Amino acid sequence: MKSNDNMNVIFVGKRHGRSRALPLNAGVIVSLIFLLVAALAAAGWAGYQAAVSKFEAQQPSESELVAHWQDKLNQQRSDVAEIRENVQRQIDALTIRLGDIQGRLLRLDALGQRFVESGLVSSGEFNFDQPAAVGGPEDATGGGDSYSAPELTDMINQLELLIDDREKQLRLLDQVSSRSKLEDELYLQGRPITWGWLSSPYGYRTDPFTGKRRWHAGVDLAGKEGSDIITVGAGVVTFAGDRFGYGNLVEVDHGEGLITRYAHAKTVKVETGDVVQKGQVVALMGSTGRSTGPHVHFEVIRNGKSENPEKYIQRASR
User: Fold this and answer.
1) Is 283 exposed, middle or buried, given 0-12, 13-18 or 19+ CB atoms closer than 10 A?
2) With pLDDT > 70 as the criterion, what percentage of the chain qualifies?
3) Does residue 284 contact residue 273 with C-beta atoms inside 8 Å?
């Protein structure tokens, strides 16, 4: 009996139950396997290409990358600008504070210089025209080369506190000095002339015009016509002009009930209401009014009553 090596594939139709046989030999099988492998390979390649396309679609383009990094750069620039602005504001604030400190130091120097000029402090001990002398060996173990912002701020705070303390002390010293100077100015002392002599004392005397005994409420100091008549204390001019018997008269109120009068002047150098200093020229010597020659009639009145001017003329200066 003869064997058959061919294989048949039978296809049965849906209608009439008819069948059809398809013979399969080795060549056909190999071809089918090759087609199946080729189909699987094609499907794999198509899937790979689809995956690559999807991956590439998800990656940003070159222009998108440039735009992204440009945004990053702009943000960094904005951050740097903000930091720089904050630093500049801090520098401006410190600069303003340093300018204020410099102005306060200049005022302190001026006040100290005034003390030197007034003799309140010795110019040999304090020289306000030169910076303070400092020095010392350099510390090899010292810190950094510059101060940090917090350290600098702390130093400025300490300097301001020190200046506040010095200002209070110098202000108090200035008040004491001013009070002392004011007391010296108001202290009646000295002669109302720069040159001359006592020609008539205070008290009863023989009247030069009538020869009778009369009360003389001041002293007369004779001198050269036109020479200076000066105040013996600071005050306010309450009268400046002609008065019967006195001729040209200057009257100065020194406060606390004290008034001085300078009479028979040739010329008056001040006006009513003027503030005059001790030793200021208020008139020139003359012989106006009831007078026999160039002199100044000098009176001192306390609380409405005359006092002997000689005790003020002979007073020691303060």
Assistant:
1) buried
2) 70
3) no
User: Which tokens in the block code for residue 14?
Assistant: 């849906």
- Around Cβ 228, how many Cβ atoms within 10 Å? 19
Phi and psi of 107, rounded to 5°? Answer: -65, -40
pTM: predicted TM-score of the whole model, two decimal places? 0.49
Please answer whether residues 270 and 240 qualify as being in contact, where contact means their C-beta atoms are separated by less than 8 angstroms. yes
Cα angle, residue 203 at apex, residues 198 and 209 outer, rounded to 5°: 75
Report in angstroms the alpha-carbon separations of 68 from 60, 79, 82, 272.
Answer: 10, 17, 21, 87
Residues 114 and 99: their CA atoms lie apart, in Å, by 23
Say how far apart CA 197 and CA 222 lie, in whole Å: 5
* Cα 241-295-306 angle, rounded to 5 deg: 70
* Amino acid present at 226: G
CATH class in words for 197-313: mainly beta
Phi, psi of 105 (to 5 degrees): -65, -35
Q: Map tokens 């030197």 to a residue.
A: 116
Can you give the residue ranges of every domain in the chain? Answer: 7-58, 62-127+147-186, 197-313
pLDDT in tens, 13-22: 555 556 565 5
From the number of C-beta atoms within 10 Å of its C-beta (0-12, 13-18, 19+), residue 46 rates as exposed
Distance CA 121, CA 39 (A): 114
* pLDDT tens per residue, range 108-129: 777 777 666 666 555 555 555 6
Instruction: Extract long-range pairs of 242-247: CB within 8 Å, 24+ residues apart.
Output: 242/288, 242/289, 243/289, 244/289, 245/289, 245/290, 246/289, 246/290, 246/297, 247/286, 247/287, 247/288, 247/289, 247/290, 247/291
The CB-side HSE value for 300 (13 A sphere, CA atoms) comes to 23
User: Hey, which residues does 253 pair with through a beta bridge?
Assistant: 236, 259
Q: Tokens standing for 290?
A: 């009831």
